Structures are given as C-alpha cells and as structure tokens.
Amino acid sequence: MMNFEIAWSARAQPLVPAGLVAFDSAARQLVRDLSSREGEWLAPLRIAAGPTAVVVLGEAARLPWADGVTYVGRHPDASTLYLPTHSEPRVPIDLLARAIGRRVSSCNVIVCRNPPMLLPIEASQVLTRELLKHWLEKH
Hints:
32% strand, globular
C-alpha cells in the first residue's frame, strides 16, 4: 500500500464492478460474512488481503453486497487499473496509468479514493473458507 492522492469527480457512466476493497472493520465484517458462504459460492472469486485491507475480485454478479466497501472496475483504456465504479480521476487516464506504473511494478493496481492509496494486487488467490479463517485469526 502506498499513499497516492488525486482529484476525483463523479463518473457519468459507472464502471462494471470487477472487485471490491474493504478496510479495517468493514474488512473484518466482509470476511466474517464470506466465511458463512459455501465453498462452491466462493470458488469463482479471488482474494488479496493485508493487515487492514481485503480485496475480492470476480464477476459483478458474483461479488457480495457489503456495507462499507468500495466497488471497483477496470477502466476500458487502462485495464491494469481498478478504479472506484462511481468516480473518475480528473486527470487523463493514460497519464495516471503511466504515473502509477512508475511507482508500482505490479501489473494490477486498485486506485483507492478514500483512503487515497494504491493497492497492488499481484498475489490474489482463489477464495476459500480456509483463507478467510486464517485472515480472521491473524487480524
């Protein structure tokens, strides 16, 4: 994670959700909620998690609904960036992608608006109940 502040505006056409990111208490609640799901329901999803953030990636129809999370989608002109579905940066997307590429070597990055930061997601894994349990025990 690294701080990265940019100006945002409302997106006229929301991006199709391709993932979500949750922090702190919202992350713990999300993991608890997902832990109650069956393995078959979890299998199409991928997870990347750190001490304070949880990222879940997958098709829009498979993503869980959860309070306090930010849904993200891939920008059509910068497929390595996951941006908030209802916000867009006030800078040209190609310039933003290049600036992020200089700071982060990961091929996929979530650009968070609140809190303002970059989350590289190189090491996502298939979502399993065991991973969720392990994260809850650790955090």
